[in-house]
Amino acid sequence: MTTALLNPGAMGAAIGRELRAADPNREVLWVGAGRSPDTRARAEAAGLTEVGSLADVVEAADVVLSVCPPANALDVARAVADAGFSGRYVDANAVSPTTAREVAELFDDAVDGGIVGPPPSQSGTTRLYVSGATASSVAELFAGSNLEVRLVDGGAGAASAVKMCFAGWTKGTTAVLLAIRALAQAEGVEDALLDEWATSMPELVTRSEAAPAAVGPKAWRFEPELQEIAASMMAVGLPGGFHQAGADIYERMAGFKGRPDAGDEAVVLAEVLDALLSR
């Protein structure tokens, strides 16, 4: 079964590598036109096969797996559908259940997915939640790989709902934590707050100091994901303001895109807090 991967970013390339690990004889296609040298290097390292255009993917692939920034997920799906793809489309992006259902409407055979965890490099770290009538086929694609596939009861939107709930906590609370550190700095009470945290909630000291270096380079992707979480909340009558504000926090950190997530945490923390307060 020929599979295509759109697109091999850090997560996508790792997913593609696991597809190849599950079956070394499987060909995993990707579209190289217009992609950056870094993307090309990731695709080559993952053992992916370059094709010239999306039309080539549509002609050759039985399964298309979409792993892209959430803001691009619907446009990518529409482009694949407009190109005439008639196989199985697996949308594994961090989008709201509503967006996932919009994607599913474009295809006769659609699987909704949501990835939890880092790019898989060893077993036990990363799960791909999937839902839909043919979701079990995705588990078969990754059998024996480092990526664990978990089935979620329900159709399109169910797997995405799991992702939105999970990220709503992890990414949402990180945004709130950074905003609180920025507030304490602006009011001149950062030392007093850190002393109190050290007494009552010491994990917040460590987490708030490590978070900027960890999330700064990825904040540009987190901003639209928080927007999707806010939309998920509002779609069921819950307030979306928590995560709308979180999206604003990550948008203010967008300038850290591409920076390494290592180095002096104290320096990165100071730079991130300055960026948050610059508005």
Q: Main sheet, how many strands, which sense, barrel?
A: 8 strands, mixed
Distance between the termini: 51 Å
Number of helices: 12
Mean pLDDT reading: 94
Q: In percent, how much strand structure appears in the residues?
A: 5-15%
Give the neighbour order of strands across the main sheet: 3-2-1-4-5-6-7-8
Molecular shape? globular
Share of helix, binned: 40-55%
CA radius of gyration is 20 Å
Specify the structural class. Answer: alpha/beta
Number of DSSP strands? 8
- Low-pLDDT ranges: none
Helix-strand string? EHEHEHEHEHEEHEHHHHHH
Task: Describe the fold and architecture.
This protein is α/β, with parallel strands linked by helices. It contains 12 helices and 8 strands. The chain has an 8-stranded mixed beta sheet with strand order 3-2-1-4-5-6-7-8, with helices on both faces. The longest helix is centred in the middle third of the chain and has 30 residues, at 158-187. The relative contact order is 0.10.
